[in-house]
Amino acid sequence: MNITINLGTIPLNGAIMSITIGVGLLLIVRFMKHLKRSKIGQLEGWSIGFAIPGFILTITGAQMSLKWPLYKIDFLYNIIIFGELSLAFGVLLLAVSILLWRKANVFAKNNVDYIDSMTISRILMKEAPILLKPLSYFTFAMGLALFSITIASIRLQLFSTFNDDLITSSFTKYPLVEGLFISVLYGITGIGAILLPFTLKQYAKPSIFNIMITCWKIAGIAFILFGMLNYFTHIGLIVHSMGE
């Protein structure tokens, strides 16, 4: 039985999810670099910065995981590959946001100057491994999941382009082009996630931290650029569908 779904009547959240994932990864990179350089000051701003992408990914990831409108056709894997991972990352970002907000309140009660970046960074550097260690276990597990998706997507060629895509249609005859791009993107994100627990050890090697930061920086930029292209693509898909 053939099922036809009008793309002009359903939500396509992939673009905002991709951009938000990229922003979330780059925020983590920026925060960690600032922390290493003792430049962390106003924690409320960082908390809100993590909360915004966390909220967006939690909502859109939950919507895709629980009620994905394209489940009746061959997009069922989107629930696992995009929806569930976005939901997991969104909840993690919200958890970090809550931790930073609570630390800001503790500093305020102890009369710690919120613009004293040296003191705040020193305290956070000392407490961060303890605070983030429980979260790092889940991050490690999700990194393994990203690797599994990377292998599956390459072997099964999951990430093939739509024929009607306005930008990626140039690669329709070469499905491995986009497939390899997204697979590698998932893979390097997974490497960073797997390395996180090892960076929290007392005598962690700086090289491990640098590899993790580099992976997430590259992935963050790539997710943002991919989301930007998806806005153009999704608008074209919806317009063409409505025209039909």
Report helical residue fraction: over 70%
Structural class: mainly alpha
> Major sheet, described briefly?
none
| Shape label | globular
**Run of helices and strands:** HHHHHH
Gap between N and C termini, in Å?
21 Å
Number of helices: 6
The rounded Rg comes to 20 Å
Total beta-strand segments: 0
Measured by DSSP, the beta-strand proportion falls in under 5%
Quaternary state, please?
single chain
Unreliable stretches, pLDDT < 50, 5 or more residues?
Answer: 1-11, 162-167
Q: Can you give the mean pLDDT?
A: 81
Structural commentary:
This protein is an all-alpha fold. It contains six helices and no strands. Helix 1 (14-36) packs antiparallel against helix 2, helix 3 runs antiparallel to helix 4 and helix 5 (175-199) runs antiparallel to helix 6 (206-243). The longest helix has 40 residues, at 117-156.
Tell me the layout of helices and strands:
Layout: H1 14-36, H2 43-66, H3 77-109, H4 117-156, H5 175-199, H6 206-243
Helix pairs in contact: 1-2, 1-3, 1-6, 2-3, 3-4, 4-5, 5-6
Keyphrases for this structure?
244 residues, mainly alpha, 6 helices, 75% helix, 0% strand, disordered N terminus
Describe the structure concisely.
By secondary structure, this protein is mostly helical. 75% of the residues lie in helices and 0% in strands.
